[in-house]
């Protein structure tokens, strides 16, 4: 049995890369902040190698994972080039019966502290999220939301997100990527995970 996976390049100081599964090229020339299309990958033990795009010299990552059967996954390359690793993130397989939006937050900024995701008035939506943490989905009313990223437990805003329009019956992930106080800068990416 197979699963659907997509690859997310979230390593801020890494070049564009090629990704191999069991020595077969599955994604080529994917650059920072980009997410591939979903593709089939057989379930079971899987060797993942990541090389600088166009090269098959020494991989920047060579790791073994187990792909579970009949799942939908985002496989994110995270950290920095010297600490690169994979984070396997499960995506929703089923829809819910509600006419609402579903949103979660994933902290993929390697040098950012733990953070809170809040509304502009300070209301905490997701609290104390650390690097490589992925929250559960939160069901909210569809609409336009203005969110902020704050250092956990404080009023210190490190990032104002542009207004986010959330549609009904849709699952989203907000990914925090980049570096605090360095280049490329901290920013948020909105991913559509599933439309029901």
UniProtKB/TrEMBL annotation:
<protein>
    <submittedName>
        <fullName>DUF4397 domain-containing protein</fullName>
    </submittedName>
</protein>
<feature type="domain" description="DUF4397">
    <location>
        <begin position="3"/>
        <end position="118"/>
    </location>
</feature>
<feature type="domain" description="DUF4397">
    <location>
        <begin position="121"/>
        <end position="185"/>
    </location>
</feature>
<dbReference type="InterPro" id="IPR025510">
    <property type="entry name" value="DUF4397"/>
</dbReference>
<dbReference type="Pfam" id="PF14344">
    <property type="entry name" value="DUF4397"/>
</dbReference>
